Amino acid sequence: MDSLTPTGEHKAPIYLDNHATTRIDPRVLEAMMPSLTEEYGNASSRTHAFGWAAEGAVDKARKQVAQAIGARPKEIVFTSGATESNNLAIKGALGFYADRGDHIVTVKSEHKAVLDACRTLEKSAGVSVTYLTPDAGGIVDPGDVADAITDRTVLVSIMHANSEIGVLQPLAEIGRITRSKGVLFHTDAAQSVAKIGIDVDAMGIDLLSLSGHKIYGPKGIGALFVRARDPRVRLVAMVDGGGQEKGFRSGTLNVPGIVGLGAACEIGIAEMEDEAVRIASLRDRLHARLTGELDYVTLNGDGDARLPGNLNLSFAYVEGESLLMGLREVALSSGSACTSASLEPSHVLRSIGVSDELAHSSIRFGIGRFNTEAEIERVADRVVAEVTRLRRFSALYAAKRDQQTDAGQAQ
Ligand SMILES: *Cc1c(COP(=O)(O)O)cnc(C)c1O
């Protein structure tokens, strides 16, 4: 993508919004090409070679996705993305197990696809929902989860990596609790699959949502892991029709998307460790430069338990929106991409006690596979320059600095 710089030359903006979506990996696109062209069969056609080829491609992808999370291929249900997977997991489980109970435990900092699915059930199905508050670092206390579970609880839904502040939840501890209490455990792992190790058996996960476009795969494809044994999880389907995906999700399979998701999972897992180290070092370099060269910069979310590519910072005395306007050659988000259409402060930052004022000063840096060291240095230069420029217009910032200088001289 090109944009016109002030001097009139075309220059591609630097993409640092990898939590909103990622660029498709060229190797993923290459893997998809046959099913986008000659191998166009319907994976349900059992009577000819086109159908068999499509079915074979889907089988391979199902194995690749299953392997990425320690599941068995038959436990993977392909969907249109993590939004649909979250809806299917939550509404599907509460629907199927209505005789067991009517209560969900989740967290205030979840993705809107989880929170809004819960709200709908509260409004229309008489379900009650406990929204836990994470600690100041964004992490849920497993003890709070245990305390919130009642004999009416059907499901606990707690995400792996947060899409705004990158914080990782203690899934294994939570899974031990849900197991011991006989409650289903769903996790939204859209941001973490193939980036951070995840194992559905070791972590006691019964339902797991993932998405292609967050892991360098195509948009409009995702999956839901539905545990087949110990326990076998049942769901009410959201989409009825031809009975594909064992009836969990009818509709002709999106074969190119499925092939792309499988390839994205396999590549991600193969390169996960090296990539995490490389991306975390870019992230740490950016963090060190911004906090070294600017004052009043705070990190949102726990400093350690976080995605390698996530850096969410508040730049006090600067409006996040103004900062982004001044940084048009860098693609960034203030708060979450999903809520940036409205100017509501991010519900995630609110949930960890960040003031509305500082939430409006926050920027999410999302570093990914295709970012380079040179890009990170350039972004640091530009952010430092732009924050410094905007703060020249801030009377509050000037007053704060004067206070500091006076305090310093008085000592
Ligand atoms: C992006 C995202 C979603 C939504 O996924 P889609 O595939 O775009 O529907 C859900 N949860 C999290 C944590 C996400 O980052």
| H/I helix tally | 12
Query: Total number of β-strand segments?
Result: 14
Give the low-confidence spans.
none
Which CATH class of the largest domain applies here?
A: Alpha Beta
User: Any idea what the shape is?
Assistant: globular
Order of helical and strand elements: EEEHHEHEHEHEHEEEHEEHEHHEHH
Total discrete domains: 2
Strand order of the largest sheet: 4-10-9-8-7-5-6
* Unique bound compounds: pyridoxal-5'-phosphate
Helix content: 40-55%
Keywords:
411 residues, alpha/beta, Aspartate Aminotransferase, domain 1, Aspartate Aminotransferase, domain 2, 2 domains, 12 helices, 14 strands
Summarize the SSE layout with pairings:
Elements: E1 3-4, E2 10-11, E3 14-15, H1 26-36, H2 49-69, E4 76-79, H3 82-96, E5 103-107, H4 112-125, E6 128-132, H5 142-148, E7 153-157, H6 171-181, E8 184-188, E9 207-211, E10 222-226, H7 255-293, E11 297-299, E12 310-315, H8 320-326, E13 330-331, H9 347-351, H10 356-359, E14 362-366, H11 373-391, H12 395-410
Parallel strand pairs: 3-13, 5-6, 5-7, 7-8, 8-9
Antiparallel strand pairs: 1-2, 4-10, 9-10, 11-12, 12-14
Helix pairs in contact: 1-7, 2-7, 3-4, 7-11
Pyridoxal-5'-phosphate binds next to helix 3.
Explain this structure to me?
- The protein has 411 residues and is of the alpha/beta class.
- It has two domains: 3-23 and 271-410, Aspartate Aminotransferase, domain 1 (Alpha-Beta Complex), CATH 3.90.1150.10; 26-268, 3-Layer(aba) Sandwich (Aspartate Aminotransferase, domain 2).
- Helices cover 41% and strands 14% of the residues.
- The protein is built from twelve helices and 14 strands.
- The protein has helices spanning 26-36, 49-69, 82-96, 112-125, 142-148, 171-181, 255-293, 320-326, 347-351, 356-359, 373-391, 395-410; strands at 3-4, 10-11, 14-15, 76-79, 103-107, 128-132, 153-157, 184-188, 207-211, 222-226, 297-299, 310-315, 330-331, 362-366.
- The strands form four sheets. A seven-stranded mixed beta sheet has the order 4-10-9-8-7-5-6, with helices on both faces. Strands 11-12-14 form a three-stranded antiparallel beta sheet, with helices on one face.
- α7 (255-293) crosses α11 (373-391).
- The longest helix has 39 residues, at 255-293.
- The protein is globular, with a radius of gyration of 23 Å.
- The chain starts with a strand and ends with a helix.
- The model has no long low-confidence stretch (mean pLDDT 94).
- Bound molecules: pyridoxal-5'-phosphate.
- Pyridoxal-5'-phosphate is lined by residues 81-83, 111, 113, 159, 163, 188, 190-191, 211, 214, 222.
